[in-house]
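call fold(seq) -> tokens
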Amino acid sequence: MKSLSVKNVLLFCFLITLIISCKSDKKEVDSKTEKVKSEGNIVEMPSNVINIITKSMDFTTKDTITSGWNTFKYQNLSYETHFFLMDKYPEGKNVEHTLKEVAPVFEEGMQLINEGRREEGFAAFGKLPEWFGDIVFSGGSGLVGPRETAMTCINLEPGYYIMECYVKMPNGKFHTSMGMAKPIIVTTEDSGNSPPEATINITVSNDEGITYDKPMTKGKHVFSVFYKEQRHHENFMQHDVNLVKLKDYASIEALEKWMDWSDPKGLITPVPNGVTFLGGVNEMPAGSKGYFYADLKPGKYALISEVPNAKEKGLLKEFTVID
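ret:
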């Protein structure tokens, strides 16, 4: 829900053609597949982290956290792909309002889409309450595969949040409806933490899609993700960044299609063959920055946003790490 987080549902953004570019040392890098030699990076891992554990359809973590910069260590111990997204709620609204006023609308809309009644399904989202448009989607991890762990650092303002995952079960039901919607209170007390030092800087914009300033190399990295701009796409989604490890037989076309939740087969268990999600930074308002950690082993990868036709919009970037 982007199901729960599909903000400003009445906004449609069509006809976007973006050109993906990635520069290193001010020289253009191949926009489809980049191959580079390994490089050693010294990455300091934070000791002050907030642990999140998923064993099934749950988030086990703190109920209250400090504001400011926080690093989340998300351990997905389940057998399905998940993520977490922090939704900052407007004053006076809470998880009970979500379960009563928001979740049923998404279930109705998705059911109609699954039945092949796409136009009726999208029209059903017009039943969302007016306050839903005031939710601020404030980052979190990208998609995380089964038995994988992701580290994400984001800056949170004080307030009432819902931590959610809206990947779909094989029957099409959103994980939010199965228990993955946990209230979190972010206090006025500042964490006192500082953001990490990035080894590679990613920028996401409307005109250039996903770009980054250095070649992707073997070893440990801290990626910064700066949302220079945001916009809504045909499935109501805004930009996010997900790191994906790809087997040689993995289909980029299948991955791209799967990333669209509004497709009956999109964002649903199981993921496409040969695809493992390794985290990233979930969507944030324009001007925001988040960080994620990754240890890149030799092989094929992609960075991708959860939007339709990501490749033509510059929001799908393939690269290969060489030993």
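Residues 88 and 129 are 16 Å apart (CA to CA).
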